[in-house]
Every structure is written in structure tokens, then in C-alpha cells.
Amino acid sequence: MKKLIFLFVLMFMFSCGDYIDQPKNLVPEDKMSEILADMAINDQATFMFQNTNLESGTRFILKTHNVKPDDFVESFKYYVVKQKMSDIADEAQKKLLKKDPKADQYVKDKIKKNLNVPTFAR
């Protein structure tokens, strides 16, 4: 009887492999990194210009990438649970550094001073 219970418990553990199902309209990883890079730029713009609206900027970014907000949220949750979000965020940081050479030089200066540096830049 104990062997039978152990077998059922073992089967149950291996049958539940995924915590979350893949969303129906999953945003691809490369597109997700582009969206995150654009959102980081939008976030800095709202920091620099206090009268701008972060929400309208986010809606504009999602609209230009042809992604629905619900699809973005579900994809974000999926990538976080699957532990892929850090790779996507690193790729977004690389894209930001390519877009802004001044930021690239700033990160290189921080590396020389050994201050707070992203892991991909080392």
C-alpha cells in the first residue's frame, strides 16, 4: 500500500510541470525587449518632463508595436514565471545602449569606477 501511495505522489509531482500556461497571444522575446527598451525611454522622459503622462506614453508604445495591453501583461507574467525576464531585460538594456552612445560611455565609466554596473556590461 505504501508503494502505491508513493507511486501516486511521484506521478503527481511529475505531471505538474508548468505553473502557468503559455498565453494565447504570447509576445515574442525580441519584441518584448524592444517594448521594454521603449518603456524605459518613456519613463525617463516623464522623469525629465514632469507634466507628461506615463500612461499615455505606455499606450502609444504598445500601439506602435501592435500589442494589446492584456497580451503584454500576460506575456510579462509568463516570462517572469519561466525565469526568462532577466534575459529579456538584459537584451533591452543592450538595445538602449545602442540607441544612446552617451549612455554607453556612461556605463563604461561606471565600470572603470566599479560602481553599480549591469551584469551584461562586465
UniProtKB/TrEMBL annotation:
Origin superkingdom: Bacteria
Residue ranges constituting the DUF4296 domain according to the UniProt record: 23-99
Protein name per the record: DUF4296 domain-containing protein
Annotated source species: Chryseobacterium piperi
